[in-house]
Amino acid sequence: MNTNQTVTVSEKLLFERSTKNRVGVSFPPLDVPEKKPHGSLLRKNLDLPELSEPDVVRHYTRLSHWNFSIDQNFYPLGSCTMKYNPKINEWGARHEAFSLLHPNAPEDSVQGALELMWELQEMLKELSGMDGVTLLPLAGAQGEFTGLKLIRAFHENNKQTRNKILIPDTAHGTNPATCTLAGFEVLKIPTTGEGLLSIEHIQKSLSHDVAALMVTNPNTLGYWEENLKEIADLLHKNGSLVYCDGANFNAFVGLAKMRDCGVDVMHINLHKTFSTPHGGGGPGSGPVAFIKKLEPFQPTPIIKKESEKFSLDWNKSQSIGALSTFYGNFGMLIRAYIYMKTLGIEGLKHMSHMAVLNANYIRARLKKYYDLPFPRKFCLHETIFSDKKQTPYGVTTLDIAKRLLDFGYHPPTIYFPLVVKGALMIEPTESESKQTLDDFCDTMIHIAGEAQKNPQLLKKAPYNTRVRRVDEVRAARNPILTYKLSSTAEE
Question: Disulfide: which of 42, 117, 344, 413 matches 425 by Cβ 3.0-4.6 Å?
Fold first, then answer.
């Protein structure tokens, strides 16, 4: 295309049309240049429709209804805690006293916001049993990264070179990735036949270059790590630290403190445990709680309270530095604060009790129809099944998940944790009623019956969705990552 090509007559007409509305009122004409840069000219005239505001609103509203959300139906997505977000949280976060704050506003004019964050830190300190909390991390994975950077800074300050992190084979997928990003080498630790960490396995793996153990508690099988205190004592005797992935905090808020289990640092997902929005790549929030000896290394700024005044302290010589431009995802902090204040400590305890009760109820109702790979007496916040009882009929976990879509349910997490072949990870949270759980269980039992009587029905599911089953193998092996213009458009 010639860089000296002038604007065509059809293009000028298009600009002239765009300066008039439907009743013929003219707006100031656009300053159309006589020449345009190479590649900026339209390849053909645009035939754009004229749409009214209701038409546009209805179009995007219709598209939003095609999405699945927790406001529409049960969302049993295990390990991600897709629980209900109370509307009072949204009201508070959108209040103009908070939503119109400028991040560079003088400290004297944002004392209320600083006080809210300081109180939230104090509540999280109490619930975790730790000595300090930073609200800066913008997601759970960034919380992991922050905790590992604190561990690295601590060892370096003690003139020790420790470059290995022990991680169970049931770890969350982000754990090994975060360790690598933080400059550590990952050593995988196998779990026992009961789905727990083994003291013997930990002992065999300890050496002078182990910086920490990174453990999820409760683990991704839904079980409490019963030997964690003894294991933590072993790590501490070795000069190592213990990091807890607190993503499953929903199972024991107000009931147990990780500090009492020997944990030195943990992150807490506000977007899971404390009901702030979750999914779609953000916004998240992953505050990190830590013991006293890690305080000098925490990221800046730090919220300080002197008398009745709050301030941000950036002057920390041993700090790992700033994590973001400003102070965390403030809107998420507001939502979590309101949730915690609304429930109070007794309400938070009840939340955890109900989350555990709901998971065990589903486990009890479905264990006759789906395999329990680690059949301990009870689980905590989530329960894990496998497709072992369905595979003799040629039905897989994926088929079960696809068939659930036909009944209006979002499928649970599938094929994770990796130690369970054909895993179905179900987490009901405390938000759901017994009626909802019964309806879901009835559907799962119905699908188990279909697997025996008509397995081909499941192999072709879903039938009622706007998009039918896609070729997932082809999509994984040959992903289309860029939009390609048609040959006609490129001419």
Answer: 413
